[in-house]
Design goal:
about 170 residues; inorganic pyrophosphatase (n-terminal core); alpha/beta
């Protein structure tokens, strides 16, 4: 890890510690508003997951990170490295607004971690955060382990499996 990355993570950790976040466990029966983080390479999985959530009546907002400016622009909110500070913190107004929204649940569909999306996840005041940590930094309330099969569609399946079952009220 180079010096710039160490500094960026130190700054991020200080901001996370200073943040006031109310945590609450949700499943797909209790969640009303979800934020989805994804990268352009996962477009098909993102669209499947968004469709799954919408069919359940869940409002969905998304944020896409582009490694390079693609010809096809994804959903309304996206950003690239050009939209970040020299440390990798997002500076684009739309991205900052997204990262400040208090979603019931924030789901990170990314397998390969990009620091700008990690910042959005870490600083989000979402009540419940879910994703694959895949490294030494974990800002999720529930981290899904897919290191043996690190594929976006498998991550999506595992998220659906575990979040569907979490905190279920037992009927008698």
């Amino acid at each position: 890890m180079n010096a710039k990355t160490k500094i960026a993570h130190r700054v991020l950790n200080q901001r996370v510690l200073a943040a006031d976040r109310q945590k609450k466990v949700h499943n797909f029966d209790t969640v009303k508003h979800v934020g989805l983080l994804w990268s352009f390479e996962q477009k098909e999985v993102f669209e499947q997951f968004r469709s799954f959530l919408r069919k359940k009546g869940i409002a969905v907002e998304s944020l896409c990170y582009l490694l390079k400016l693609e010809q096809e622009q994804p959903d309304p909110v996206f950003f690239t490295k050009k939209d970040t500070t020299w440390l990798g913190f997002p500076k684009k107004e739309e991205v900052i607004r997204f990262s400040e929204k208090k979603f019931d649940m924030l789901i990170d569909l990314t397998i390969k971690k990009q620091f700008p999306l990690t910042v959005v996840c870490a600083l989000s005041p979402a009540e419940f955060k879910v994703g694959y940590a895949g490294g030494e930094y974990n800002y999720y309330d529930v981290s899904i382990d897919v290191h043996e099969k690190p594929e976006p569609d498998y991550l999506m399946e595992q998220i659906v499996y575990y979040i569907t079952r979490i905190n279920k009220i037992q009927e008698e």
